[in-house]
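Researcher: Re-running this chain for the archive, since the previous output was lost when a drive failed. Same request as before.
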Amino acid sequence: MRKAYITTLHLVLEILSYVVLAAALAAVFIFIANNGGAEIPTHYNFAGEADGYGSALSLLIMPGTMLIVNVMISLSIHVGSPAKWNMPFKIHYGREIAVWRCVVLMNVVLMLLLAAFTLASSAALMLGRGDLIVILSVGLCILMVPAIAVPLVMAARHNRW
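Model: Regenerated structure tokens:
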């Protein structure tokens, strides 16, 4: 049964986030197959210099964790009751669907944004480019602000009408 607050756009963005995560996992598995037990830089300081090393298998941590996070968000959207979602305001009767659509949009945009970050940062780690990790991390922080704020402002506006 399709829920009225989940639109086709939501489903497309959600599926796209899983495709991007699958690409990240595939790239990591290919890298591991080609580099096996080689020690690689796994952590960089803000100057872009390697300050931590580990097995190529450690590259699975981020995509694996993000896959678990995506599944949990998907479950909350599709299985959980939106009436139990933590909202920053009280939803007025009759406006629930419009407000919930905005909240779902925020969640699927964040899923896609984090999946893209996972793919890009995994690629940067595989290339040994610590300078890219810093740029990607700052970019993620900047992009998360509108990804959260815009849908929440939209939800609050829908709640007023």
